[in-house]
Every structure is written in structure tokens, then in C-alpha cells.
Amino acid sequence: MIESALTLFPAVPLLGAGIAALAASQVTLMRRLLLIVLTVNTAAAAHLVAATADGSVFAHQVGDWPAGISIPFVLDAFSALMMLVAGGLILVSVVFALIAGTGRHRLFPALILTLLAGVNGALLTGDLFNLFVFIEVMLIPSYGLLVLSSRGEGTARSVTGSRIYITFNLFVSTLFLVGVGFVYGTAGTVNMGELAGSAAESPQVAAAVAICLAALGMKAAVVPVHGWLARSYPSTSPAITALFSALHTKVAIYAIYRIYAVVFEGDQRYLWIGVVLFSATMLVGVLGAVGEERMRSILAFHMVSQIGYILLGVALFTPLGLAAGIFYLLHHMIVKASLFLSVGALEERFGTDRLSELKGRIGADPLIASAFCFAALSLAGLPPFSGFFAKLTLLTAAADKGEYGAIIVALIVSLITLLSMLKIFNVVVAPSFTREEPAEPVGDGGVAVDQYKRTSLRLAAPALVLAGVTLMLGLGSQVLMELAITAAGGLVDTTAYVEVLTR
């Protein structure tokens, strides 16, 4: 039953996107269709997590064609967890977009549903070429969303950010396709089940797959190819920034974990490269945030830094290291979306995210302040939030592997991250405690204070929900860690994954 249903996860959103595009004039009805599809998708993904929690692996060869010819979809605990968190974050980001007005364009539902289809397909496919196809299915609507919702201080900044994003991703997609071509030329297949272990045995295949991994690393914003993210993400609307932060780089990270585990079989010879690159990513990202004066720009650089933490798990490639990396990946998707949405709520009310223009304004709204502070504490790795357990487990795994240099870098970066969050707190939150009156809204055309209070809950609710999730994941970290350990087990021993792909 589950095997045959896997194709529905990309197919149903694509069908919904087609309907939404054809009936785009029925704006209200298509928004309802969008929310229904997103809700059902998230609920179905939760069922998949339950089905794979014992380590089960499911696969379906589309059209019942034989392995190596058909389009293969394969599901395990790792892909199910990613689908659940990604689907839930798309839903929350869309709700915020509809509240804030970003999602009012008539093509918005069609673009979001196409994006969802690409995400689900990329997380389920067991074929490198189809991974490229589904990543492109993700990117095409993203270009539309970026252009339709671009914002910032003036048109020039928005256009520049959009141009960087589109140009860079087109280049990287081309590079990834070249790598896939070399893989087929050297190995005679792009089915990951048939490629299992081939990179560890053949230098030619290893070099070809390395091109694919390099392209995915660029998509994930690994140093030194990270500047595109910091310049393009803050140029769009807060809702789309949160959406992109939860999806594009994270799908690339998922693919890096999957490809290295299956095709390289965790080959220890190359792991030192990852340790060096990902430690540098941690440090350069957080240092980039220090000099920024816009809240979303600060968060974008922190996103680069946290990607280094996540990928350190695959560079360790031990059962605990992989589990810690997966835990960190899921935690970060939720926390970063919460931060972007809380900043987005502030920006929607006051028309700016520049620190110098927001002095004391978050503190005037305890809802937004709470959402931001909870997520910021989790990002910095303080208990009892999920970030503390993610970092603690990752550092423990690094110590077990003897990577003490990476541990030192991670601790330094955590301290700078905390200081950076305190910088925002001291400028934007703390001054309000000495005010007799809350700061007046500046970006809403003179909305009265009582109306401001009524609309504040709606704007802050999505970020508050996600901040609450990171707190619950911290208090109940054992549940997520057990699922992450199961997912990591499927990467350490890929036998079941390979068997369902090749039979």
C-alpha cells in the first residue's frame, strides 16, 4: 500500500498546481485548495514517519518497469522525517504569507504546489538524474515566487538579489547535470542502488560523483561558495525567505548525506575534506553576521554557519555523528523558519528590518518578542531548547571521532552566535522596557494601537508555533533522537535501501 502511494506525493501537488493555474481567477477557492493539499500532505508524511520508525524501507518502480530503467521512488526513516518537517514548514510559511499579503497573487497557489511536488520528489527519488529533475521542479516555481514577492529597500536591491539567485542556481544545476552525465559515462547507470559502493572502488566514478557533491555543496551554501545565499535571501519577502531557508539548502544537504552514504559507502579517505570545509563554513558564516545591520541579513549569515554544523555529521560518518547531523538538520529547519517569520512579523508591522530603525520595537509586542527570543536561544544552543541537544550530541560525536579542532571551532561559533543574538536583543527588545509607551508603528499607514494589538497575534502565530515546537523537541529530545538514530542506521548500513532499489 505504502509503496504504490509514494508516487502520489509528487503527483497530487502537481495535479493541484495544474488546477490552481487553470482556475487562477478563483483566488479564494484556490487558496483553500492550497491549504487542503498542504495539510493532507503533512498528515500523510506523519503516517510515513510512523511506518518507517522501525527501520522499514519501501520502494516503487514507476510503471512497474525494471530497476535501472524505471523512475524509482524509495522511502526510509530519513526521507520520511524530511518530508514531514518540510511539508509542515511549507504549510506554516504559506499561512504567514496569506496573513501578511505576500500570498495574494493569483499564481501563488500553483507555484507553491509545484514547489511541494519538487521537494517530495527530490526526497523520494533513488536516481541521480531524477534528483536533478525534481530539484529543477523545485527551482522553477521558486524563481516565480522570488520575482512576485521581491522586496527590500528599493527595486534595485530586490532585482539584484533575484538575479544572483537565479543565475547562480542555473549555473549549479548545469554543473550537477554535467556530473550526472559523467556518472552515467563511467558507471553506466544513475540508479543509486546500482551505484552502491562504486565510488569507493572506482576513482573515475568517485570523481564523477564528486562533481555532483560539489554542485550540491554549492546549493547548500558551503564556504567558499556561500555569498549568493546571504545576498539573495534577504531580498525577497519574509515568508518566502522562511520557505526557502527550510527547503532548498536542506534538500541539497539531504542529497549529500544520501549520496555519500550509498555511493561512497562512507569512505573514510575523503572525510577530512568535509571536516575542514564545514568547520570553515561554521566560522565564516557567523563572522559574516557580525558586520550586518539588517535582521534578515544577520539570520542569512547564521544560516550559512549552521549549515556547517549540519554537514559536520556526514563528515564524521559514525552512527552517532550521522544521527546528530540529522537531528540538527530537522531542528535547524524549524528554528530558522521561526526566526525568519518572527522578523517577518516585525517587518510587516514596521516596514523595515534594519536594526537602527527598530530600536525597542519588538519589546512593544511580547508575542513577537517571545517567538524571536525562544528561537534565538535555540539557535545559540541553550537548554532546554532543541538546539542544545543537537549541538551537544554533535560535539559528543566529534569527540568520539577525535575531531577536536572542529569542536573548538563549533564552541567559538556558538559563543559568537549567542553574542549576535544578544546584539539584536539589546537593540530591538531591551530598550522597550524603559519606555512608558510602546513604539508607534511606522510601516502601516498610521494603524491605531488597538488594531495593532489585534493583528499582532495573527502575524506572530506562525513563528510562535514553530518556537513552541523547538521547545517541545528540546524537552522531548529522546523521541526525535530515536528517529534520527533509526535514520542514521539506514545510512550506515544501506543494504535494505539498495535491495529495494535493485530488485
Automatic annotation (TrEMBL):
<feature type="transmembrane region" description="Helical">
    <location>
        <begin position="6"/>
        <end position="24"/>
    </location>
</feature>
<feature type="transmembrane region" description="Helical">
    <location>
        <begin position="107"/>
        <end position="125"/>
    </location>
</feature>
<keyword id="KW-0812">Transmembrane</keyword>
<keyword id="KW-0472">Membrane</keyword>
<feature type="transmembrane region" description="Helical">
    <location>
        <begin position="242"/>
        <end position="264"/>
    </location>
</feature>
<feature type="transmembrane region" description="Helical">
    <location>
        <begin position="298"/>
        <end position="320"/>
    </location>
</feature>
<feature type="transmembrane region" description="Helical">
    <location>
        <begin position="131"/>
        <end position="152"/>
    </location>
</feature>
<feature type="transmembrane region" description="Helical">
    <location>
        <begin position="367"/>
        <end position="385"/>
    </location>
</feature>
<feature type="transmembrane region" description="Helical">
    <location>
        <begin position="205"/>
        <end position="230"/>
    </location>
</feature>
<protein>
    <submittedName>
        <fullName>Monovalent cation/H+ antiporter subunit D family protein</fullName>
    </submittedName>
</protein>
<feature type="transmembrane region" description="Helical">
    <location>
        <begin position="33"/>
        <end position="53"/>
    </location>
</feature>
<keyword id="KW-1003">Cell membrane</keyword>
<feature type="transmembrane region" description="Helical">
    <location>
        <begin position="459"/>
        <end position="481"/>
    </location>
</feature>
<feature type="transmembrane region" description="Helical">
    <location>
        <begin position="326"/>
        <end position="346"/>
    </location>
</feature>
<dbReference type="InterPro" id="IPR003918">
    <property type="entry name" value="NADH_UbQ_OxRdtase"/>
</dbReference>
<feature type="transmembrane region" description="Helical">
    <location>
        <begin position="73"/>
        <end position="100"/>
    </location>
</feature>
<feature type="transmembrane region" description="Helical">
    <location>
        <begin position="164"/>
        <end position="185"/>
    </location>
</feature>
<feature type="transmembrane region" description="Helical">
    <location>
        <begin position="405"/>
        <end position="425"/>
    </location>
</feature>
<keyword id="KW-1133">Transmembrane helix</keyword>
<feature type="transmembrane region" description="Helical">
    <location>
        <begin position="270"/>
        <end position="291"/>
    </location>
</feature>
<dbReference type="InterPro" id="IPR001750">
    <property type="entry name" value="ND/Mrp_TM"/>
</dbReference>
<comment type="similarity">
    <text>Belongs to the CPA3 antiporters (TC 2.A.63) subunit D family.</text>
</comment>
<dbReference type="Pfam" id="PF00361">
    <property type="entry name" value="Proton_antipo_M"/>
</dbReference>
<dbReference type="InterPro" id="IPR050586">
    <property type="entry name" value="CPA3_Na-H_Antiporter_D"/>
</dbReference>
<feature type="domain" description="NADH:quinone oxidoreductase/Mrp antiporter transmembrane">
    <location>
        <begin position="126"/>
        <end position="417"/>
    </location>
</feature>
